[in-house]
Design a protein that fits this description.
Layout lengths: L7 H9 L8 H19 L5 E5 L5 H9 L4 E6 L2 H11 L1 E3 L14 E7 L7 H8 L2 H4 E8 L19 H10 L3 E4 L2 E3 L16
Parallel strand pairs: 1-2, 1-4, 2-3, 4-5
Antiparallel strand pairs: 5-7, 6-7
Helix pairs in contact: 2-3
């Protein structure tokens, strides 16, 4: 994604060090619960499958399975360290964001997670990856991204300051419709949403 090295030192610093990490384990658990609830609300059934893009060490997997035991989880990340260490145990595979434009799997996913990733991805790669979301997504995409209008804490090396409108156009161009709180509906679920649940086009 950038020239950064997503090795063990990186994850120790930004995810495990209480003095540096931006999000506590409790906050992460609340975020996971939010994403699950939103996806199930619009799907109208329990969550069955999750694709976690830019998953790092796959921290969401255990939290998702605590809420929905037996859920089908697949994590993708560009970190060779994370995939080598946790790939087999947590079902992580090596992939860059842009590859989602071409990657396809046996089924579409009820939930695609992309948390704290896109603001580090170059624009051309970001748009290439987003172009595959409409085919990969059955339900809801939870895309947590920060913009030039925000003041993010933590790791700002390689942070790309794009405007909120830039992201809105990119997501809309990929067929995703904002429904609030970092949630974006697949084209298949648009008919299930009421008018005031959706962001203005």
């Amino acid at each position: 994604m950038t020239g950064k090295h997503y090795d063990r030192t990186y994850f120790d610093r930004w995810y495990r060090d209480p003095a540096r990490r931006v999000r506590s384990p409790a906050a992460t658990a609340r975020t996971v619960a939010l994403a699950v609830a939103m996806a199930e609300y619009y799907l109208g059934r329990p969550l069955r499958s999750v694709l976690d893009v830019g998953c790092g060490e796959g921290a969401w997997r255990a939290l998702l399975r605590r809420l929905r035991p037996g859920i089908d989880y697949l994590g993708l990340d560009a970190s060779e360290y994370a995939v080598a260490r946790y790939g087999r145990a947590r079902n992580l595979r090596l992939a860059r964001f842009g590859q989602l434009g071409e990657l396809r799997f046996e089924t579409r996913f009820d939930l695609i997670v992309c948390s704290d990733v896109l603001h580090y991805v170059p624009s051309a790669e970001l748009q290439r990856g987003l172009s595959g979301f409409a085919e990969l997504l059955e339900g809801l995409a939870f895309i947590e991204v920060f913009t030039a209008a925000d003041d993010p804490e933590g790791d700002i090396e390689g942070f790309i300051r794009r405007s909120p409108d830039w992201y809105r156009r990119a997501f809309a161009g990929a067929g995703l419709m904002a429904c609030g709180s970092h949630g974006y509906l697949s084209p298949r679920l648009l008919r299930t949403a009421a008018a005031l649940e959706l962001a203005p086009r």
